[in-house]
Design brief:
341 residues, alpha+beta, Immunoglobulin-like, 2 domains, 12 strands
Length: 341
């Protein structure tokens, strides 16, 4: 698959369009999977590109009945550093079908697929839901006219009636592309504004957006809830207090049990106070996705009390992350653990 998004910084006016691709496809009774729109890319250049269309053609969404798929949020496919989020639904039709046994009213099978780089896949769930909902609501009784128009373009001899069908379908297709553009711009603008910078997944996504030239500076403001907790030293500031060595607030120890393939993590509360309603998580990252191994709640952690957490070691995963959050979801402990056994 070609690299849709490139690696160079992007001008802000084009930045959001470089993040995503939205495919609107239907199942043709003669030819199979046919794309109607690949926004914002060039449909005519790409629809017959087998390498580019490979993840679309073999996406599992096509092979799952609408009834079974309807119970799921969406069906996803990961391919070459991209995630393809797919949703299938039936829509109204009044066009003459080209296969025996089908009538004009036989519903059209429509598939919506949105692709995002794996680094920002966290935005995909809501994005595919929004896109599917709006397209269904606004174009449910019009999509078949786009299909009818595309089929009519194949006719060698085009009568005035056929030309009118093509004209109407082309107009609806333009309206659909405009809707996709508006929804996408609004969605990504709002999603970035309300990003939770305490989430590791969203931190990775925001880092990716920043590298791509997207403005996320509002998340690096001087407010307490900032994207980066790292402060750069101000050489103009003088230390008013004498420096002193403080005892560590947490004492942390890790043991790898080779026989049982487990991590044993010991943490000592070296404060002189207790903590309540803590959340303890152990995760690992595989291909930019954070996977949770353990999520545990601690009601009370007393001063000088040791807590031991045991977690399985996942085959071929050598790097783990240990977190403790307080009741306000503020991070108290963050430790990276490397395992070599």
């Amino acid at each position: 698959m070609t690299d849709l998004f490139g690696s160079e910084p992007l001008e802000q006016k084009d930045a959001f369009e470089k993040l995503y691709a939205v495919y609107v496809l239907y199942f043709d009774e003669e030819k199979g999977h046919i794309p109607l729109i690949i926004y914002p890319l060039d449909l005519e250049k790409l629809k017959d590109n087998k390498r580019f269309m490979r993840p679309i053609k073999y996406h599992s969404i096509w092979f799952m009945p609408v009834e079974e798929q309807a119970a799921l949020d969406h069906i996803d496919l990961e391919y070459h550093r991209y995630i393809f989020f797919g949703k299938k639904f039936l829509t109204k039709s009044k066009r003459e079908k080209r296969r025996a046994g089908l009538v004009e009213e036989t519903p059209e099978t429509i598939v919506i697929i949105v692709s995002l780089p794996s680094d920002i896949a966290i935005f995909g769930d809501e994005y595919i839901r929004l896109m599917t909902k709006e397209i269904k609501e606004k174009f449910d009784d019009k999509l078949f006219k786009i299909i009818e128009s595309e089929i009519a373009k194949e006719q060698i001899v085009k009568t005035n009636q056929i030309k009118e069908v093509i004209k109407e379908g082309t107009k609806i297709k333009k309206d659909l592309s405009d809707l996709i553009a508006i929804l996408s711009k609004e969605y990504f603008s709002n999603a970035i504004k309300r990003s939770d910078t305490t989430s590791i997944k969203q931190q990775k996504a925001l880092s990716y957006l920043s590298l791509k030239g997207i403005d996320v500076s509002h998340l690096n403001s001087s407010s307490e809830d900032t994207f980066s907790k790292i402060k750069i030293f101000d050489v103009g500031q003088k230390n008013k207090e004498p420096l002193k060595i403080e005892k560590p607030n947490w004492i942390f120890n890790v043991n790898v049990a080779e026989d049982s393939q487990e991590l044993e993590i010991l943490v000592l509360n070296n404060f002189d106070k207790e903590f309540n309603n803590l959340s303890v998580k152990i995760t690992h990252v595989k291909e930019f996705f954070e996977q949770e191994i353990m999520n545990q709640t601690i009601d009370v952690w007393y001063p000088k009390e040791e807590l031991v957490f045991i977690s399985p070691i996942i085959p071929y995963i050598k790097e783990y992350f240990f977190f403790i959050f307080n009741a306000k979801n503020e991070q108290l402990i963050s430790k990276r653990i490397n395992v070599n056994i």
